[in-house]
Design brief:
single chain, 323 residues, alpha/beta, five-stranded parallel sheet, two-stranded antiparallel sheet, binds iron/sulfur cluster
Length: 323
């Protein structure tokens, strides 16, 4: 097949758009979608100046999504002194997995000349995920512990580095899966939180004083296209799956979405278009932004924002250290 733009050999066919694209036009189309998302979500505020630049912390795991996001952000803002990037890698303590992906992060940030920070569960919490899985004091899946610890460190370090935004590499498939899971679980508060946490433009989301605001500039790009971009651009992405990956329900949803997308191209895009609108309504109607019941206080142990006396991370650490 030939590229629909220039007639050269196509490297991909997007069934949802009907387009065949060659390498150059495919790479350009991915970058264009990310830049459009940055514009539409108002990521760069009007008052950002070279004298008063924005600091964006990017969660860099070394997997394809975060590597592609970091690379495109670098290319987009290389000549723009209003934006300064800090790549943040979290080492969970998973043998035979995270060391290799940290190497990929170091290689990428060295090559691009981006500031790179590495934090570990061991230094921060005196735990390693391999031990947590073995002890499992709460009888939960590995990712349920790991997600709490990771979110805590991303927030803590984004604040420590005075970040204006915290960016993560969630792609279209990730977001469509989360949307569908929230629907199927019937959890409207979760839909509202999803919107406030990372969907919609910053103008729509309003002031967010308690957290460094998050954004997902890769959320219009399907997973397969992220992988193809990483391959074509020869980026040092680490592709092995975590040995503790345990989100079985998400796996089922992923399979379901693959099938739907195969039979009805464009399903993921239409899910997200409708979901974002509904999530916006849920966020304003459900009161996720309201003060009152959901008013945040500080964890009495670590000072993190929480609605409880002791935050979830501190109570999980107590259970783990008690074993
Ligand atoms: Fe942690 Fe689960 Fe991700 Fe592994 S797959 S790094 S356990 S969240």
């Amino acid at each position: 097949m030939d590229c629909d733009k220039c007639g050269r050999e196509a490297v991909m066919h997007a069934a949802y758009s009907g387009l065949h694209l060659c390498e150059d036009h495919f790479v350009a189309s991915v970058e264009k979608r990310v830049r459009r998302r940055i514009r539409e979500d108002d990521l760069v505020p009007d008052d950002a100046t070279p004298e008063d630049p924005q600091t964006w912390v990017v969660g860099l795991s070394g997997g394809k999504d975060s590597v592609v996001l970091t690379d495109i952000l670098y290319r987009t803002f290389e000549q723009d002194p209003r934006i300064q990037l800090v790549a943040l890698t979290i080492h969970e303590g998973i043998e035979g997995y995270r060391d290799e992906s940290v190497d990929a992060c170091v290689e990428l940030t060295d090559e691009l000349g981006i500031r790179h920070e590495l934090v570990t569960y061991e230094e921060e919490f005196d735990v390693q995920m391999d031990d947590v899985v073995e002890k499992d004091p709460e009888g939960m899946a590995a990712c349920a512990y790991c997600g709490v610890f990771r979110r805590d460190l991303l927030s803590k370090y984004a604040e420590k580095y005075d970040a204006d935004k915290l960016l993560t590499g969630h792609n279209l498939d990730d977001e469509a899966q989360t949307a569908l899971m929230n629907f199927l679980e019937g959890d409207v508060s979760q839909v509202a939180k999803h919107f406030d946490a990372s969907l919609g433009s910053f103008e729509e989301r309003g002031e967010q004083d308690d957290f460094v605001p998050r954004a997902k500039p890769l959320r219009d790009v399907p997973e397969k296209e992220v992988a193809l971009y990483a391959h074509l651009e020869d980026l040092p992405a680490h592709i092995t799956e975590c040995p503790h990956a345990s989100e079985a329900y998400r796996g089922e949803i992923q399979e379901l979405l693959h099938k739907l997308e195969e039979n009805h191209p464009g399903t993921r895009h239409s899910i997200m278009a409708g979901y974002e609108e509904l999530a916006s309504l849920a966020a304003s109607e459900f009161g996720a932004r309201d003060e009152g019941d959901t008013e945040l206080g500080e964890c009495e142990r670590c000072g993190a924002s929480t609605t409880r006396d002791v935050c979830r991370k501190c109570s999980l650490l107590d259970s783990i250290h008690a074993v």
